[in-house]
Amino acid sequence: MIQEKKQFSRKIYYTLLVTLMMISVSVLVSSGAVKSGHDASNIRVDIPNNDGTIEAMSLSDAVKNHRIRPAVPATPSDVKLDDKVLTLGSSSNQDWICVTESIEDHCADEDGCIIRGMLQHETSSVDEVRTLSWQVFMEQDDMSNNNFDDTYLWAQYPGDSRASRLGNGGEYTVLRFWNWMYAYNYNHKYCKGQGSTGPAFDGDNLYDLTFMVHPDVQGRIVIED
């Protein structure tokens, strides 16, 4: 029994030792310490065997023989941004409330985005609420013939679809949530304090959208990468 306990303890010890060795070398490799100009065959590592012995070998052989596995850093496509949440509306029931926000980070990449609206009508006799989700995808330079300098945007949900061209000077209703809320590529004259409509966003503001909510409605917009 005592001998069995010793063997069991020895196995735990070497298992932990192997784990720590894998973590240490993974950090070494993923941090860039071993790269061009650093010959991994000249770096010696001690690898514990299952029988309790220690085997010395080069780092390159250890990786090649799957005795250790270097960490693989995440690529940009693996990284998802946190959802962007916008709150719109007021309790006054008098003003069209607007929020202008860039959708570039969440929507202009290769997998597009989802823009969801959660809306509540403040004066409805039945306390009505509604929700709607738009799937948005934009023209990608590496996939397009690039016949025009603007950026084509397509938005769709099961009951509707809309096309816009950002950067060509045109003013578009990019998204529409019934008559409760809208998204434009310009500032609308109904927005409180605006006074006039346009011009269309361009340049550094190319990906800006103005979300405008009806005076009788309050809601939230969630932009998901």
Task: Note down, in words, how this protein is organized.
It contains three helices and twelve strands. The chain has 225 residues and is of the alpha+beta class. A six-stranded antiparallel beta sheet has the order 3-12-5-6-7-8, with no helix packed on it. A four-stranded antiparallel beta sheet has the order 4-11-10-9, with no helix packed on it. The longest helix has 29 residues.
How would you describe this structure in keywords?
four-stranded antiparallel β-sheet, 17% helix, six-stranded antiparallel β-sheet, alpha+beta
Could you name the ranges where pLDDT drops below 50 across 5 or more consecutive residues? 25-38
Secondary-structure element pattern, one letter each: HEEHEEHEEEEEEEE
Total of domains: 2
- The tally of helices reads 3
| Measured distance between first and last alpha carbons | 58 Å
In short:
This protein is an alpha+beta fold and 225 residues long. It is 17% helix and 34% strand.
Per-chain topology:
Layout (H helix, E strand, L loop, with lengths): L1 H29 L13 E5 L5 E5 H6 L19 E5 L8 E6 L1 H4 L5 E9 L7 E10 L12 E7 L2 E7 L6 E5 L3 E4 L23 E6 L3 E8 L1
Antiparallel strand pairs: 1-2, 3-12, 4-11, 5-6, 5-12, 6-7, 7-8, 9-10, 10-11
